[in-house]
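ping. complex inputs:
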Amino acid sequence: MMRLKLESRAQNSAFWSYGSPVLALLLTVVIGVLLFIALGKDPMRGLQMFFWEPIRSGYALGELMVKATPLLIIALGLAVCFRSNVWNIGAEGQFVIGALAAGGVALLATKETSRWIVLAILMAGMFGGMAWASITAFLRDKFNANEILVSLMLVYVADLLLGYMVYGPLKDSNGFNFPQSKTFEAVTSIPRLMQGSRMSIGLLIAMAGAAGLWIFLFRTRAGFAQQVGGLAPAAARYAGFSSRSALWVAMLCSGAAAGLAGALEVAGPIGQLTPYVPAGYGFAAIIVAFVGRLHPVGMIFSAVLMSMFYIGGELAQSRLGLPKSITGVFQGLLLFSLLACDTLLAYKLVIKSSPSKSAVGGAA
Amino acid sequence: MIDLTPRLQLTSISKRYASVLANQDVSLTVLPGEIHALLGENGAGKSTLVKIIYGSVKPDVGTVSFNGSAAHVRNPQEARALGISMVFQHFSLFETLSVAENVWLGLDKHLTLAEVTQRISAKASEYGLDIDPSRPVHTLSVGEMQRVEIIRALLTNPQLLILDEPTSVLTPQAVEKLFVVLKKLSSEGCSILYISHKLHEIRELCTACTVLRAGKVTGHCNPQNESNASLSRMMIGAEPPALEHRAAKVGDVVLGVHQLTLPRVDQFGMNLNAVSLNAKAGEVVGIAGVSGNGQRELMYALSGEDTRADAAMVTLFGKEVGHLGPAQRRSLGVQFVPEERLGRGAVPSMGLAHNLMLTRNDAISKMGWIRTKDLAKQADGIIARFKVKASGAQATAKSLSGGNLQKFIVGREIDAQPKLFIVSQPTWGVDVGAAAQIRAEILALRDAGCAVLVVSEELDELFEISDRLHVMAKGQLSPSLKRADATVSLVGEWMSGLWPTAEALNSVASEVAA
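pong. complex structure:
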C-alpha cells in the first residue's frame, strides 16, 4: 500500500524557495486550462490571451509595463510593511487618496503652468498616501487597534471620499453631469519614455525604488532593525530597536509608495479623476509582494506576471467573451497555489509504501 | 514475591527524524519495582525514547513489550490503559480550574467530582502528598503543581511511572520529599523510569541506569556502585575539565539596584518587591532560585527591555540608568545574555553575522551602512574563538543546536569586552563540555575586571562560579551570601523565601557601607 506523507525538513529548502513560485505558476496554468475547458472555450486560445498576447509586440510589452509599474511601486512599499510584521492591507485606499491629492494639484494647473508641476503632483500623491496610512499607524500606536482591519476599512472610506469629490466639488461643470473631474491640462501629464508607447518615467521610478529597497533592506542598519521587528519582536526589544518607529516607518513607506502609484496613474494613463480610479492595484500588489517573496528582484517578476493577468483578463473579455472577473480568478489561483506550494519549503513529500520507504521531492 | 518478567522491555529501538538519528538500536529492561534511571545529556534521545514508550511517537524499528507481551501502544490513552503513566516536565494543568477539576478531566467520565475529590485526598494522604483538592491551580506553587500531576498519574494505578526531569523545578527540600514518595511507590512494586541528567540524584535514588549518548546506549549500570565521574564519562565520553577559581580582586561598584519595585506586566508574572543588590568589578554575583520567582522580571529591568523603573532604582557606575533602553545601557558597557536564545537572543531566520548587529555596532559605519565583509569577519572570529559548530558566518541561527547558539551568543557579548556582563541561565540545555567552556569564559571575564551577574537554576553551577550569592523567591531578593558560607541546605531553605529578615537588613546595610 502506498501513501503520501509530509515530513518536516531540518532546514527550509533553498531549492523550493525559488521552485515554489514556478510550480505555483504551473499549477495556475493547469487549473486555468481546466477552467477554460469547463467554460467551453479553447484552452489554447485562453492561454494565448494571458501569456502570449501581452508580450507579442513592442507595443504590447509597453502596455505590460504600464500596468506593472503601479503594481511594483505599491508592492515595494508593502514589502517594507510585511517584512516588519505590519499588516497594511489598505494600500488600495492609500492609492486612492494619493490619486485624489495628486488630481487636486493637477486641477490647479492652467495652460501657462510650468512642466515642474509634475513634481508637485507626485509629491502630493505621496503625501496623500502617507496621510491616509498615518491614520492606521496612529490608531495602532495609540490604541493598539488592529492595523489589518483599520487599513482595510479605510479603503472603503477612501473610495467614498473619492466618490464625494467627483460627484460634488470636483465635478466638471461642462461634463454633462458625468461624475468626473475635467480632463487635466497637458502640462500635468507624467512624461513618457518614448514615442508610441504609454510607458512613463513611472517605470524608472519603480526600478529605482526596487534598487533603493534592496539597499535599504540588505545594506543599512535601519533596514536590518526594521526587519528584526518583523522576524522576532522579542529580539528587537532585546536589541533596543523601537517597535513604534518600525510601525511608523513601515506605514509611511507603504503609504507613500501607494500614493505615488496613485499619482502616476491619474496624471498618466487616466488623465482625470473618475470613480473608476481604484482598479484593485492595491490589493493585487499584496499578491505581487508575496509571490515575489518580499524581495525587490522577485517582485519585479511577479509585478510583470500580475500585469499579464490584468491584460489577459481584458483580452479574454473582449475576444473570448469571458467575464472580466477572470483576472481576479487567476490572481487568486496564483496566490492559493503559492501558499500551497510553500508547504514544500518546510516539508518534503514522501511516498510511503510499507514496509520499505522511498523519498521523492526531497531535492536540496 | 519476586516476579522476574520484565515490566518493560525495549528491543533494538531506532527512530530517525529529518536529519538526526534520535534513537539507534536502543534496548532497555525495567524490572518490577525498579527505579530505573535514563541518563543522558540534552539531545541524547531520552525524550524520543520516552515518547515511544508512551505512544506519542512510533519507532521506525524495534519492539516494546510490557509485562512480557508485545505492546503496540498507539497513543497515550492506550499507554494509560496498559498501566503506563507519565509526569511531564511541563505541566498540563488548567490554571483557572481547581485541583480536583483538573484531575477529573483526565479520568473516566463516570465518576462524579465528589468521588474524584475523595480519591485525591485518599491518594494524597497515602503518599504524604499534601494537597487541597479544592484549591484553584493558579494559587499553587510549582512543587504543588507537580504533586497534582503525580496524584493524577497515581490515580490510574500505574505499573510503570515515567518522570521527565522532575526535579528541575524543585527546591532541594522538595526533592527530598519527592524521593520519599518515589521510594514508597517502588517498594509497592511500581516501576519508575526516571529521566535526568543530575548525577547525584540518580546515584541516591536509582538502582539501575541506562545511559544514552547521541541516540545510542553507552552503558547499563547500577548507579549506586558508580561515581559521578564514571557516570559522567558514560554520559559525555569524557570528564569536564575542572575550573580554576582564583580569589577575586574586587573593585568599585559597577551595578547598583536600589529597592527596585515593579508590578508585574501580565497575570503570570511576578511583582518585584524592593530588590536591592550590587555587583563590583572583578566579582561574579549569582542569583539562585526556582525560576518564575521574579528572575525574568529582574533581568528585563536590568537589560533595559523594561524601562518602567525609576531612573534611580538602577545605577551603573553611579549613573542613574533605570529609564534607559537596552542600546543606551550597552553604550555604557553592559552586555546581556537572555535566557531565550532563539527569538530573543538571536533572530532564528537570520545568519549569525547579521545576528551580531543586534548588540554590536562594530561593522556599521557612522552613516548606518553595513560593512558586510567586516561583519562576516567578526562573526568568523567569534565562531573560531568560542568553537561554535556552524557551517559559517551566514548559517542561520536556527540551524545551530541550542548549545552552539548559546556559545555564539555568549561569545558575541563577551567579545564586546563589557564592564558589566549579565547572563541568564548561561548553560541551560548546553552539553557538559560547552558548559565548562562557557563557565571558564565567565571566570576569565571576571579576572579581567568585569562585574558579572549570573542568574541560574543550577545550584552546582552557581557554587562553581559565584563569589557571592543571592536567592530570589516570590519577587524578593535574599541578602548576599559569600560562597564559602553557602550550603545546599541553606540556599534551599532560602529558595522558599525563608531568609532571616533582621540579618538581611544588617547585611544590606553593611553592603552599602562597604
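The mean pLDDT of chain B is 87.
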